[in-house]
Amino acid sequence: MRLHRLEITAFGPFGRTECVDFDALGADGLFLLHGRTGAGKTTILDAVAFALYGTVPGARRDGKRLLSDHAADGTAPSVTLEATLGGRRVKIVRSPEYFRAKKRGTGTTKQNAKASLTWLDGSGQNLTRLDEIGEAVGAALGMSADQFFQVVLLPQGEFARFLRADSDERGNLLERLFDTARFGDVEQWFAERRRLSAAELESSSIAIDKLVGKISTAAGEPEQLDRQPVEWATEILENSRDAFRSAATALASARATSDAAVAALGRLESTATAQRRRDVAQRQLSEFQATAAERESMRREVELSAAAGPVAALAKECATATAAHAEAMRSVVEAGRSLSAVPGSEIVLAEHDSDTSDLAAVRTVVARAVREWTTQVGVLDELRSVERRADADERIADQLAQQHDAVERRIDELQRARDALPEAIETAERAVDSAVHASAEIATLESASARVAEAVRAAIELKKKRAALAKSEKVLDAARTTHNDARELWLDLRERRLTGMAAELAASLIDGDACGVCGSTAHPNPAKSAETTVTEADEDAAAKNERATAATVDSCAAEVATLHRTIDGLVQASGDRDSAGLAAELDSVTTALTAARREADALAPRRARLDELRSEDQRIATVVAEQRSEAAALVARREQIVQAVAQMRARVATAIGAGGDSIDQRTHRLDQLIRRSTALLDARVASADAAAAAATLSRKLDDLVSESGFASAEDAEHAVIPARRAADIEQRLLSANDIRAHAEQVLAEPAIAAVIGTEPVDTQPARAAVVRAAEELDAAVAVHAECRRKTEQVEELTAQLWAAVDRAAPMRAKHDELAALADVVAGRGQNARKMSLRSYVLASRLEDVAESASIRLHRMSGGRYEFVHSDEAESRGRRGGLGLDIRDDYTGVVRSAKTLSGGESFLASLALALGLADVVAAESGGVVLDTMFIDEGFGTLDADTLESVMGVLDELRAGGRVVGIVSHVDEMRQRIPSRLHVVRERVGSRIELFAAS
């Protein structure tokens, strides 16, 4: 890493923009950074760190306040750094988070941090995101911000504390510099694995205890905590199996006794059942024999009813036919009476009422009359159609008249609307002309508005500049007065010094040396200095004051001249007019411009409105012509329809004649004649058919009665029984026969025949024996089931216990091994040095640091001191391996670093810082650090030791490395010609660069 250029703006104590050219400053390889306390030396280093990592070292990063208090309002803090990182030249620009005044209102608002990274070699994508820039810088340097602060910005105060710190404090610093997180993760991994293993082992023990408890509960035996679980569980299992075998034997005996009792009871119950069936069958046969006469009577009743059934049915049909014939005769009379009520029915009624008429003659007369009447109905239907068409045409004529009236009203409305259009068109044309005129004036008004606005601005600015000119002229007068006084003072002092030059020369005379004026070696009466004698320093101070006041006069004069030129330009721009008058003129022009723009904006709508009005006039004219044509067509069509209606009315009137009946009345009378004549004919036909049917049935009934053996049809009807009665008799006869057949079948069975004539048996004693045997069997079954359940459960739990114990044995061995290894990694147990893995790694790094630092300390101390690393454990449980002592080769004694003097402590701290820088650089992949800074501490060294230290620093700058030293020591300024001087002033610090070239 090599720094090339740094630019700071409003950062820390630097209120303005300051630049540092590291290429020029570090051309000699060594430069000095000095300045008064609080000037901002450390801020230079902070700016470098902030540009690279976006943060600053130490406690200053917590302040989060990098904006300079000396900066002008509105100035944004920023740092720009050009450097070579990882062989590539980059430019990084960063601005920190800060608060600025709000643009509107009071208070402040937060401005977020921002940054950019530009690859100056032209390859690669430039970056603007903070995280991406941080990753790119970290990858190029190969180290974190904390490592960079310790390796590149070597803070001696912190290394002095590191030198005297205890192991914990020293370890905290080393952990920040060296990445030991992975070793801490290893420690945490072992601890976590041990915790998980212990949890698994504890879970296994708990599972074994639970299984022992379940076995105790299942077997009903208390736990024996003084015995091994497997041994005790095996004994419980054998006891359960013995009890199960005993229960099985008892169950078999009880089951045999129960089976014998049940078999005996079954034999007795079979005999009792046979005796009961015997008694029932015998009783049924006795009842069947007792009801034989009743069954014979019912059978005879059914046979007579079956024989009388056809006669009764035919008699019923004959009666029905006779009644139908009488009803048909009544219908004939009623049809004749209905037909006689209609005029014009005489021709049909004459034939119907004739004594000699028959059915064929009546049918002929009715058919002829119906044909005549139907023809008349057809003629009347045609006349009705004509009349309906005439009514429809009259309604159409009325509608046409209404449409004609509506068209005439529409024509009147359109004509009134057209009469109003000429005035509206004229108004629209005037509005369009006004908008066109306004559009033409806009350019002129805009030019006038811009000219007046510029004049107003110039008038306002002119007033401010004239006030500033008056103030600047007063300042110039005061500066000239001050300069004149200073010049007079300088001339007066110069005069007085020349007057007292003899005394000044005499003061430099030395006895035995030649006089610079006369050459004499004797000085008998040298001139004496008076109280008013002016020295060279007095004259130089006065001259410097005179030049300063002259510069002030020149600056003020230049400012006044600039104001005069500015005022001349503003007078020309404003015409030297009053701002109030210009503002009023600007308002007037602005108002006119606004009105013109408004009129111009309305041009297009107004033209569209004019075109719309003209189009409306043409449209109305066209519509009026069309409406008038439509009105004439409506009138012609209505007249044509009225003539056609008159012709149709005349035709209907001629066809109807003067009889007085309407078409509907005539049609209705003819329909009545047709329907009633047809009904009379149908009644005559039905009456003839009914008479023939009644005669036929009467002859058949007489024949059937003579064949059936009954005296008359009435006797046959009386012998017929209801169907329900016949079905009931049939069912009773069948049921009696079924009962008889079943009883005879039962008595024929061998088992029933065997018990005929035997006495009834008693089953109660055998039933009681079965109940007792069943109770004993249930008890044996329950005991056997309980023993089997208990044995199976104990077997299952014992198997689980054996498996759990088998799993726990290797688990415990593995846990013991893992716990011992975790203790060693954590610095406990068999770890004799009590060092954790992370402490061991830090101790190894510290040993490398001590080895590298001892080389430089040995040279800077003249071969007296070197570091000694100790890995012994410390007291009170503090971690070991981080001890750091000093070996004094003069005495051969190893002693604490706290016994070193101030200068010796500085040497040790510097050597330690350089050694740590070497180790961290190697840890970061061998990054070459071409630029590094070393902080204060050189004031505690004597001349010889300082010479040795400078020799070491010369070695550091070998190979092109640039080393910057931060120091207040004056001798360092004499030794190091390239210097960066930070000057503290009231308006903020500034930087002066003195390069050796």
What do you see in this structure?
The chain is of the alpha/beta class. The chain is 69% helix and 9% strand. The chain has 24 helices and 16 strands. The chain has helices at residues 22-25, 41-53, 130-141, 145-151, 156-164, 167-177, 181-219, 229-290, 292-340, 346-353, 359-499, 501-506, 536-574, 579-601, 603-656, 663-708, 713-719, 723-748, 750-754, 764-825, 837-860, 902-923, 943-956, 970-975, and strands at 2-11, 14-21, 30-35, 78-85, 88-95, 98-101, 108-111, 114-119, 153-154, 865-870, 883-888, 893-896, 931-934, 962-966, 979-983, 990-994. A 6-stranded mixed beta sheet has the order 9-13-14-3-15-16, sandwiched between helices. Strand 13, helix 23 (943-956) and strand 14 (962-966) form a beta-alpha-beta unit. Helix 9 (292-340) packs antiparallel against helix 16 (663-708), helix 9 (292-340) crosses helix 17 and helix 11 crosses helix 16 (663-708). The longest helix has 141 residues, at 359-499. It is flat and about 215 Å long.
Total helical elements: 24
Shape: flat
Q: What is the overall pLDDT average? A: 78
The major β-sheet equals: 6 strands, mixed
Helix content: 55-70%
Task: Describe the protein's topology.
Layout (H helix, E strand, L loop, with lengths): L1 E10 L2 E8 H4 L4 E6 L5 H13 L24 E8 L2 E8 L2 E4 L6 E4 L2 E6 L10 H12 L3 H7 L1 E2 L1 H9 L2 H11 L3 H39 L9 H62 L1 H49 L5 H8 L5 H141 L1 H6 L29 H39 L4 H23 L1 H54 L6 H46 L4 H7 L3 H26 L1 H5 L9 H62 L11 H24 L4 E6 L12 E6 L4 E4 L5 H22 L7 E4 L8 H14 L5 E5 L3 H6 L3 E5 L6 E5 L3
Parallel strand pairs: 3-14, 3-15, 9-13, 13-14
Antiparallel strand pairs: 1-2, 1-4, 4-5, 5-8, 6-7, 10-11, 11-12, 15-16
Helix pairs in contact: 5-22, 7-8, 7-20, 8-18, 8-20, 9-16, 9-17, 9-18, 10-11, 11-13, 11-14, 11-15, 11-16, 21-22
